[in-house]
Amino acid sequence: MSLDLREITLTYPDGGGRLTALDRVTLHVPKGGLTAVVGPSGSGKSSLLAVAATLISPDAGTVTIDGTATTGMTRGELTGLRRRKIGIVFQQPDLLPSLTAAEQLQVMAWLDGRSPAGARPRAMELLDAVGLADLADRRPHQLSGGQRQRVNIARSLMNDPTVLLVDEPTSALDHERGAAVIDLIVRLTRQRATATVLVTHDRTHLTEVDRIAEVHDGRLRLPAPPPENPEGRSAEERAG
Ligand code: ADP
Ligand code: MG
User: Fold this and answer.
1) Any domain includes 237
2) What is the value of pTM for the model shown?
3) Which of 18, 64, 145, 200 is deepest in the core (most CB within 10 A)?
4) 65 C-alpha to center of ligand 1: Å?
């Protein structure tokens, strides 16, 4: 139950040549873990998420979701994998204007071939988890930017994903609301045991994440791992 990117290289056509957007990127995120990815505009953050989401297939390297390598899967297989295993939160919530908050979530069940009415309890549970139970019947224009982003996050969890990929969720929000959205993503990652990658340009809210990776010119730099614990037990366990 994890996300594993191994030696990912991605290039785009660029005039006569190729632009290297990701350069041998390796990243492992365990179940319930949250890695934040920061880096300047154009450094490759969204490309990294698009590859992890299996929306773009890399030139080289492997993406493994929940123990299954995605290399060689057909388009149809990848679509199914995304629906069942991957929650994606884009920068701007692309909510459907005519649907209520609860219906935005119920649509996800319908896309997966299940009854939207049957999915109502799950939709309500998730709206409650993001603090919007009272606003379930509002349409997007009746919600604030921060509330819309919460609906977007709740929707990404509708099919109980293994992997949660979040791209700059706070870019349209003020500082306080941005902090609340990051806190929410951290809490949901722990509670729902997703392997989460959170891309953000704003380091200030990242106190609760497991680690912060930096990307520059398509290269990912991870912080040094914590020192090995030879006995494989926590300090508390040893003390007790
Ligand atoms: P970030 O999200 O960090 O701003 P991106 O992953 O969007 O960075 O982009 C990384 C690099 O790849 C940039 O130089 C960008 O211009 C380029 N790029 C992104 N998408 C495409 C595309 N579809 N075609 C060509 N070049 C692209
Ligand atoms: Mg981006």
Assistant:
1) no
2) 0.91
3) 200
4) 23
